[in-house]
């Protein structure tokens, strides 16, 4: 079945799809968004139920291979050092994220020029700055001005979230070493904001937010976009961006609806926003005679240069009367960018950010979370007591460098529930990243010691850490070395845009969502100009 | 297809193993003696990979496990299973922890409030910017381009 022609077809209703939909929604265009997931009501989230820890480990897991819900597609990650994580719903992975909102630094866009590795971006921090500011307003940023590690910026609309006794303890540890730290910028309300409640410190903000204090795009951009007339069609699994056989231009998309029927949505412009694994999968699936290696893949780089963030988890154990460390948002407390930039004396290029994570509920504590499970047998109760409510974790998030052998392809054996080829991820941690994480573990141990930990344990590479999916449709000025241009328009197809983390040239060492949303907002303005709106 | 509940024999093996995985402490019996094996079975039947793991776990213990063995001998069997089939063992360990640490008697012992986290949450004092005094004295050090 074919639908009426849309001016803009957006594929994916997550972080960036929502932002681009809202930004275009007052331009008098007919906009349709296709999303394979569904709406989630806040009352459905795990934390509203007594068995929230079981739900968090199963039907609401971060890992699509564990959830295996009808709207999920499996990911073949047997060849990857990192497990990819994502959520398929209106709001996408913002339903599931911890809502960290740090920005890239200006230097992150000039890695080749400054450090001689990877590539420069075809845009700068300052090109994105107004869009970062706009996004902070819409998502709702809690934070504090004056961080010496970052350029000055507009005031955040809300003050920082509480540090809590555990955060204050760690902050004093950083202070005692003379190391940088700053309260995290968070897309979590510290006070009521735009009709959403303030955070009540329940803890596992990665499991959906019942009170809507955490920003996810289903409660930020989407209501405004829909009010402006955008049509959001859920349970619509796109499997092909269609193209004209003569011109090669995009003509729309074919998808399976909730009943398994194939539908066609024609469009003048197609915007793909399905992130660093979904986007190359879809464009590789969209090959044709005109685009034999996949759509927008004349460079051969579609799916290549996959970046995660190398991630180490270093946990300190305390025994001197801290309040229980499971009170407060799990991961939005403070960060340190003392080791953010390249220092050749350290033995690796680029750097990392430290972020503080709290502990969590009793079952998830026992199951391990960021470390091995609590010991079974005679040591069980002592091991549990040492961890539960008495531990604080420093997460080291390192900058991954793009490497062509790290990639997303189509699986030859694994399919989703509609029989569409699943993505196959090949990823190996580089030697540079391994040296970086080893350094980070040593420094984290130092700061946890300074904060008074009696014991420190490190997980040097946390495998289930693949939230940040970047680089697989990179932007650039040279069509031989990139998939899209600085405005996110595909070099090969002038009415096809990619607006998610796959366009990243490099990954910095911070959470990518504010940056990919700023890029999406900026791309929307380019699309408006191209359509004289 | 719905998975059938465990048989009594399977339940006895699981319960015995659970007592070794999470042994007694203070006035609490081990996880098996607390009567949590049916809860593990119930949780497993809600999530197919867990159920599959429990089936393997019990199947592999069935020929050697006995309530008459010494605790050290039972622990050795569990260690052998952990080494031979770590994935199934770890999945069952997760289930046992999920069941044990959802139990109100255990919550009371470890000081956990229990129940859903929402809508109550936890109180925390608001952020006090005074704690930034030391960092604020530092000159901007972000790298210029």
Overview in brief:
The complex is a heterodimer of chains A (533) and B (145). Chain A is of the alpha/beta class.
| Content of β-strand of chain A | 15-25%
Radius of gyration of chain B: 22 Å
Separation of the first and last Cα atoms of chain B: 61 Å
The CATH homologous superfamily of chain A: FAD/NAD(P)-binding domain
Number of continuous helical runs of chain B: 7
What is the SS-derived class of chain A?
A: alpha/beta
CATH topology value of chain A: FAD/NAD(P)-binding domain
Radius of gyration of chain A: 22 Å
Structural class of chain B, by secondary structure, is mainly alpha
Number of strands of chain A: 16
What does this structure look like?
- Chain B: This is Gluconate 2-dehydrogenase subunit 3 family protein.
- The complex is a heterodimer of chains A (533) and B (145).
- Chain A has 533 residues and is an alpha/beta fold.
- Chain A has a single domain, classed as FAD/NAD(P)-binding domain (3-Layer(bba) Sandwich), CATH 3.50.50.
- In chain A, 23% of the residues lie in helices and 17% in strands.
- Chain A has helices at 15-24, 52-57, 64-67, 111-115, 125-139, 164-177, 221-227, 275-285, 362-367, 380-387, 431-450, 513-530; strands at residues 6-11, 31-34, 76-80, 182-183, 231-233, 237-243, 250-256, 262-272, 311-317, 334-336, 352-357, 391-398, 407-415, 421-427, 455-459, 496-498.
- Chain A starts with 5 loop residues before the first strand and ends with a helix.
- The model of chain A has no long low-confidence stretch (mean pLDDT 96).
- Chain B is elongated, with a radius of gyration of 22 Å.
- Chain B has helices at 8-21, 37-44, 48-62, 71-84, 86-100, 104-110, 133-136.
- Chain B has one domain (8-114).
- Chains A and B meet through helix 2, helix 6, strand 4, helix 9 and helix 10 of A and helix 3, helix 5, helix 6 and helix 7 of B.
């Amino acid at each position: 079945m074919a639908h009426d022609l849309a001016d803009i077809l957006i594929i994916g209703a997550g972080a960036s799809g929502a932002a681009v939909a809202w930004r275009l929604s007052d331009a008098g265009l007919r906009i349709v968004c296709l999303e394979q997931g569904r709406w989630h009501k806040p009352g459905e989230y795990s934390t509203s139920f007594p068995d929230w820890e079981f739900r968090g480990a199963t039907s609401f897991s971060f890992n699509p291979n564990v959830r295996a819900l009808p709207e999920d597609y499996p990911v073949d990650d047997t060849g990857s050092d990192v497990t990819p994580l994502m959520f398929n719903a209106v709001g996408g992975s913002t339903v599931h994220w911890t809502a960290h909102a740090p920005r890239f630094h200006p230097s992150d866009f000039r890695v080749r020029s400054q450090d001689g590795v990877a590539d420069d971006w075809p845009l700068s921090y300052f090109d994105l700055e107004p869009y970062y500011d706009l996004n902070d307003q819409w998502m709702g940023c809690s934070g504090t001005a004056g961080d010496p590690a970052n350029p000055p910026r507009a005031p955040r609309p809300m003050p920082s979230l509480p540090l809590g006794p555990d955060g204050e303890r760690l902050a004093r540890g950083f202070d005692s070493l003379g190391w940088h730290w700053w309260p995290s910028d968070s897309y979590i309300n510290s006070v009521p904001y735009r009709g959403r409640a303030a955070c009540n410190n329940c803890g596992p903000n990665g499991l959906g937010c019942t009170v809507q204090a955490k920003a996810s795009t289903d409660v930020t951009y989407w209501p405004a976009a829909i009010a402006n007339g955008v049509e959001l069609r859920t349970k619509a699994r796109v499997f092909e961006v269609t193209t004209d056989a003569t011109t090669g231009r995009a003509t729309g998309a074919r998808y399976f609806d909730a009943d398994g029927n194939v539908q066609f949505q024609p469009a003048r412009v197609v915007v793909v926003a399905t992130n660093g694994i979904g986007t190359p999968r879809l464009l590789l699936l969209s090959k044709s005679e005109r685009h034999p290696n996949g759509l927008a893949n004349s460079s051969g780089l579609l799916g290549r240069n996959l970046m995660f963030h190398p991630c180490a988890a270093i946990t300190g154990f305390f025994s001197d009367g801290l309040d229980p460390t499971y009170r407060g948002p799990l991961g939005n407390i403070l960060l340190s960018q003392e080791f953010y930039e390249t220092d050749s004396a350290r033995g690796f290029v680029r750097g990392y950010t430290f972020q503080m994570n709290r502990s969590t509920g009793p079952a998830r504590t026992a199951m391990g979370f960021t470390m091995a499970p609590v010991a079974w047998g005679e040591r069980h109760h002592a091991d549990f007591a040492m961890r539960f409510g008495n531990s604080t974790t420093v997460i080291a998030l390192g900058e991954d460098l793009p490497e062509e052998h790290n990639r997303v392809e189509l699986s030859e054996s694994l399919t989703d529930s509609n029989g569409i080829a699943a993505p196959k991820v090949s990823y190996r941690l580089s030697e540079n990243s391994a040296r970086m994480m080893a350094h980070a573990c040593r420094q984290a141990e130092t700061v946890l010691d300074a904060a008074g930990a009696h014991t420190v344990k490190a997980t040097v590479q946390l495998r289930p850490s693949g939230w940040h999916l970047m680089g697989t449709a990179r932007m650039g000025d040279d069509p031989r070395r990139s998939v899209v241009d600085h405005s996110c328009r595909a070099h090969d197809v002038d009415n096809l845009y990619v607006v998610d983390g796959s366009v990243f040239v490099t990954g910095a060492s911070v959470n990518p969502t504010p940056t990919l949303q700023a890029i999406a907002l900026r791309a929307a303005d380019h699309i408006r100009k191209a359509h004289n709106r | 297809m719905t998975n059938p509940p465990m048989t009594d024999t399977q339940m006895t093996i699981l319960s015995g193993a659970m007592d070794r995985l999470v042994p007694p402490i203070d006035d609490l019996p081990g996880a098996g003696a607390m009567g949590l094996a049916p809860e593990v079975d119930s949780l497993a039947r809600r999530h197919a990979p867990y159920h599959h793991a429990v089936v393997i776990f019990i199947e592999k213990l069935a020929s050697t496990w006995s309530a008459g063995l010494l605790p050290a001998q039972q622990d050795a069997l569990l260690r052998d299973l952990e080494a031979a089939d770590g994935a199934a063992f770890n999945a069952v360990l997760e289930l046992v922890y999920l069941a044990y640490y959802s139990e109100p008697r255990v919550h009371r012992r470890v000081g956990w409030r229990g129940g859903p986290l929402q809508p109550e949450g936890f109180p925390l004092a608001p952020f006090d910017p005074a704690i930034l005094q030391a960092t604020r004295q530092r000159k901007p050090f972000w790298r210029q381009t």
